[in-house]
Design goal:
Elements (H helix, E strand, L loop, with lengths): L7 E10 L2 E11 L4 E5 L6 H8 L7 E6 L2 E2 L4 H6 L1 E4 L11 H12 L5 H7 L15 H12 L6 E5 L7 H16 L3 E6 L2 H7 L2 E6 L2 E7 H9 L1 E8 L4 H8 L4 E7 L2 E7 L3 H10 L4 E8 L2 H10 L3 E2 L1
Parallel strand pairs: 3-8, 3-9, 6-7, 7-8, 12-15
Antiparallel strand pairs: 1-2, 1-4, 4-5, 9-10, 11-13, 11-14, 12-13
The structure holds adenosine-5'-triphosphate.
Amino acid sequence: MTVAEPALAFRGVDKRYGETVAVEELSLVVDPGETFGFLGPNGAGKTTAIHLALGFVRPDRGRVEVFGHDVMATPRQVRRRVGVLPEGFDGYDRLTGREHVEFAAASKGVEAESSTLLDRVGLRGDADRRVASYSKGMRQRLLLAMALVGEPELLVLDEPATGLDPAGTARLREVIGAAVEDGATVFFSSHDLTQVEAVCDRVGILRDGRLVADETVETLRDSASARAVVDIRTGDAPTPLVDRLCRLDGVETVDVDGRSVSVSCSRDRISTVIDAIGESPVPIEGITTETSSLEEAFLDRTTGTEVVE
Ligand SMILES: Nc1ncnc2c1ncn2[C@@H]1O[C@H](COP(=O)(O)OP(=O)(O)OP(=O)(O)O)[C@@H](O)[C@H]1O
């Protein structure tokens, strides 16, 4: 019996650009058939990690493997098995959609059914128009068609939903679902939680180049449902209240915007927070409590405990 190699593995990877640490001590394994969401705010290091996975940049330390192959040692073999939707590529205005797909096939050394692929992303009727006349969303769909050339075993998608309208995002989800059904692994980088939640099995969260979470979407949801946000509207400057709230156990963030204060805490600390508000000398005009969403769970992991004013 052979044990399947991970589709993608970062093994203790560091990457710096001059003084900037883009990725630090990144260790992460994505198994074949998984749909992995790679989340993080702007500048967290997602694109750098993707460039490392594709062998576009060399790690300063550690190694990256695709299906067990070191991407720096065997870049060609690796790229043949990978389909990439890069961030920030708009295509070539003078070429048609079909020519883009044919170009992608030629550079990969494979045949491509351009009509089928363009149909899959909803561009069949526009296949022979020049990309100059494509909208942002159409360009993004075209990039997805190019990524699908050669039926890649690993699809690496960097912010694939950029510029897509709701129909486009639904189509993207459908295409990803079909690829996974055919046995592909998907590595999906995004700062858009809704997308990730809808599509992925597992999520890695990157913050300042470091992986701060690696868990299933279900676990992330559970940790979100164990949490709450208390929003307070004060009738006066809230500083004494904020000081008091910041000292409470179980309070994770206190955000202040004028006379609005938003406290994020574990659900079992809500009553303590409410008591502290009642005991504070600051007049209160209103309080609302919400249990937190996946989005808050994400933000907590990516911003940590802090006061934002
Ligand atoms: N070629 C480069 N030269 C210098 N610094 C770079 C380079 N590429 C990335 N960086 C820096 O590395 C850090 C990580 O950037 P990266 O683009 O990987 O983040 P990201 O998570 O993809 O962000 P975004 O969501 O904005 O695309 C940033 O501080 C960025 O300025």
